[in-house]
Amino acid sequence: MAGTPPETEECDVMTDMEQALTISGGIFAVMMLTQYGRRKYDLHKVLMPIGTVSAVGYFYLKGMPTQHVDVVVYLVGAAIGLACGVVATFTTGVERDPDSGQVHTRCGAGFVAIWTAVVALRVAFIYFAEHNTWFRDHLGTFMTEHQIVQDAIAPFFVIMALAMVLTRVFLLLARVRFLAPAGAALSRESSPVRG
Questions:
Q1: At CA 22, angle to CA 19 and CA 26, rounded to 5?
Q2: Alpha carbon separation from 106 to 8, 34, 39, 183, 187 (Å, rounded)
């Protein structure tokens, strides 16, 4: 592994790829357990994902390679995460309860599908990079030609996941702010905001 002396590598230590997979799976589990179905939308729903991604970012991104090409790789990961976050946001319904005035979110099959697809693509990439000779050789050639170090791959996936979560958090917050206020006309109040 680039940047790690051979004598420090042990088979019981997680590789950067395995860490990225663990992070992706963990974020997927948190999102499904806290967002799926009809949920009350409150300050906790804003702060919990921000706190989670801040902790993940701190522990898994410190010490990442920061050469020019690495930063470009991270920006690509952030752009992919942003696009996936936009899709995830628009698979989420937002509505204000006409009786209580409380805002709720609704996440169903579309929400699960986008998150499953993103995690599945990460898993497939990692699997083929580690077990498929053709893919590994072409990936190695591409990385060599573009001077991308192996230690930049895990941050790419982590940044992609973090960008997806944060994009959804802030877009949902914006959608909630555009909802008709409690006490508005019933025709506006009872209509869910759709993406």
A1: 140
A2: 47, 11, 6, 22, 20
Q: pLDDT tens digits, residue range 110-132?
A: 999 998 898 888 888 888 888 88
Q: Cα–Cα distance between 59 and 153 in angstroms, integer?
A: 16
**Model confidence pLDDT, tens digit, residues 3-24:** 444 444 444 456 656 766 777 7
Q: In what order do the strands lie in the sheet with 103-107?
A: 37-40, 103-107, 92-96
Tell me the whole-structure pTM to 2 decimals: 0.75
Beta-bridge mates of residue 94: 105, 193
Q: Which residues contact 86 (CB under 8 A, 6 or more apart)?
A: 167, 171
Contact 148, 70 (CB under 8 A): yes
Cα distance between residue 131 and residue 108, in whole Å: 34
Q: Tokens representing 98?
A: 């006409």
Mean of the pLDDT values across residues 162-168?
A: 89
